[in-house]
Amino acid sequence: MEGPKAQKMVGIWLFGSAAWVFSMVILGGVTRLTRSGLSMTDWKFTGGLPPLSNEDWLIEFEKYKQSPEYKIVNKGMNVEDFKFIYWMEYAHRMWGRGLGILFALPFSYFLRKGYVTVRLGTKLCGLFALGAGQGLIGWWMVKSGLEEPASEYAQPRVSPYRLAAHLTSAFVIYSGLFWTALSVVMPEPPAESLAWVRGAAKVKRLALPASLIVGVTAVSGAFVAGNDAGHAFNTFPKMGDTWIPDDIFDLKPVIRNFFENTSTVQLDHRILAMTSLTSIGALWWFTRKLDIHPAVKSLIGATVGMAALQVSLGISTLLSYVPVSLGTAHQAGALTLLTLMILLNHTLRKPSASLLKSLPQVVKTAL
Q: Which stretches are transmembrane (predicted)?
């Protein structure tokens, strides 16, 4: 990279792209919670123009009327109600295509200017490919919801496996962009003494497994959404009148229960959520007396607070029967907690050999 100016410009672009993906995830959550995701029954690479006349709207509405969701769930819906769910899904799709433009044009410019190294360029090409594939994963997911349900009593919905793949892919893209942006603007971690470096290494051994648990918990939330399991039991801490529902192993083979049984899916998510909170709390407890950089201490404190808030949001969403506002806030909270974990792990990186050689044993303090 050519210097501070290039570093700053590329960093701003990557942080902006990461923020765009964050907003995409939130918009996708709103689209799902308003049950708008199956309103567009076809897919075009460029997206195409929305209906511009009453005749165009009637054509799109007739296509939707052929879908299982209309026949089973929304029969009798008028065209004005259809417009709302259509615009939600159209906005989500076009927001994704907008991200492609936001990423590709500056990338081409920075390549020509020589602001991007070969190593960084390779990483960014990989992230761009993931972003392009995300659109295909999204349509693959939606297509599953346009198929006739296995039972006449089942409501049409997308495959929970495909929804989980779509959300996980979004999380991977966001994490990759955010980590890369941090690496551009902060090539070295904050380290002013060898004592702080050793302290950071001890924190990292606890932060990595906690981060993994947070990631698994977030993905399990996709199965809660995909199975509509948030409405299975709207009580806490018990599930109805019991701690563990009787039907948690009703599906055969048994492994299906963890991904398709609404009772088990919600129970799993509850257990993982409390495990995430406990692991982050343990991270704070066991590192509170370590000699570590103030930035690391602040990040651990912020992460504990965010984890507690996220669990509170989850419980409130559950008890309120999953309203759009709280459901969206809960999804945003999951990504915010993941952001803090990424930032913490990035700050805990080991400094380069050249920086290590220049560090004193302890931080010198003024008398």
A: 12-30, 94-112, 124-142, 162-185, 206-226, 271-287, 299-322, 328-348
Q: What is the pLDDT of residues 286-345, one digit of tens each?
A: 999 999 999 999 999 999 999 999 999 999 999 999 999 999 999 999 999 999 999 999
pTM of the model: 0.94
Strand partners, 52: none
HEC per residue, 14-73: HHHHHHHHHHHHHHHHHHHHCCCCCCCCCCCCCCCCCCCCHHHHHHHHHHHHCCHHHHHC
**Neighbour tally for 71: CB within 10 Å:** 12
C-alpha dihedral sign at 50, 52, 53, 56: negative
Sorted by where each begins, the domain ranges of the chain are: 1-187, 189-367
The DSSP 8-state label assigned to residue 352 in this structure reads: P
Q: In this structure, what token pair is assigned to residue 238?
A: 């018990």
The rounded distance, in Å, linking the Cα atoms of 48 and 53 is 15
- Kindly report the backbone phi and psi dihedral angles of residue 239, in degrees, each rounded to the nearest multiple of 5, phi listed first: -105, 95
